[in-house]
């Protein structure tokens, strides 16, 4: 019998319930997301516009229909973002010669200059957020998060 009323029974240190893993993951994500959002404040881009420009910066010209899955936006949200970016002169849209239904989106010179500057600032902010982890811990964290994600995805798809 526990001699300290109100104290939780002790569990072995190596037993962490899945719900606790989820809670810690959510809290960590929310803290990092808040820092990411703060790093983008005042840059003149919304989240969806930033994500579209970032994927074009790192992946090159993309068909409109492939951008959404890369940046986790619905087809309608991607089309709206591309329209805004096109109006601002930050991206171009061209139809494919072989299939005119496919429009390829690419950065303009102005778009590349803007997203390069903004992304550099954002990358520095994300580096600061991860500074509490050693190189080895970062590698381990990435490996473990991928493993967790694949496991959860397999359950969802089953």
Note down, in words, how this protein is organized.
With 158 residues, the chain is mainly α. Helix content is 64%, strand content 8%. It has a 3-stranded antiparallel β-sheet. The longest helix is centred in the first third of the chain and has 23 residues. The chain is globular and about 65 Å long. The N and C termini lie far apart (43 Å).
Features:
158 residues; mainly alpha; 3 strands; three-stranded antiparallel sheet; globular
State the gist of this model:
The chain has 158 residues and is mainly alpha-helical.
Provide the gyration radius in Å.
21 Å
Give me the number of helical elements. Answer: 6
| Strand order within the widest beta sheet | 1-3-2
Strand content: 5-15%
Based on secondary structure, the structural category is: mainly alpha
In round numbers, the mean pLDDT is 89
Write the H/E string, N to C. Answer: HHEHHEEHH
The total beta strand count reads: 3
Largest sheet: 3 strands, antiparallel
- Point out poorly predicted stretches: none
Helix content: 55-70%
End-to-end Cα distance, whole Å, is 43 Å
């Amino acid at each position: 019998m526990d001699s300290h009323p109100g104290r939780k029974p002790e569990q072995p240190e190596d037993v962490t319930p899945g719900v606790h893993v989820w809670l810690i993951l959510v809290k960590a994500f929310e803290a990092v997301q808040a820092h990411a959002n703060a790093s983008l404040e005042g840059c003149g881009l919304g989240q969806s516009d930033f994500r579209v420009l970032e994927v074009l910066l790192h992946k090159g010209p993309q068909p409109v229909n492939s951008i959404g899955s890369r940046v986790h936006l619905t087809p309608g949200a991607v089309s709206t973002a591309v329209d805004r970016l096109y109006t601002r002169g930050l991206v171009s849209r061209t139809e494919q010669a072989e299939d005119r239904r496919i429009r390829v989106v690419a950065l303009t010179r102005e778009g590349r200059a803007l997203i390069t500057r903004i992304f550099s600032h954002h990358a520095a902010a994300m580096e600061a957020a991860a500074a509490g982890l050693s190189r080895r811990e970062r590698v381990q964290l990435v490996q473990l998060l991928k493993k967790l994600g694949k496991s959860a995805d397999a359950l969802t798809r089953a």
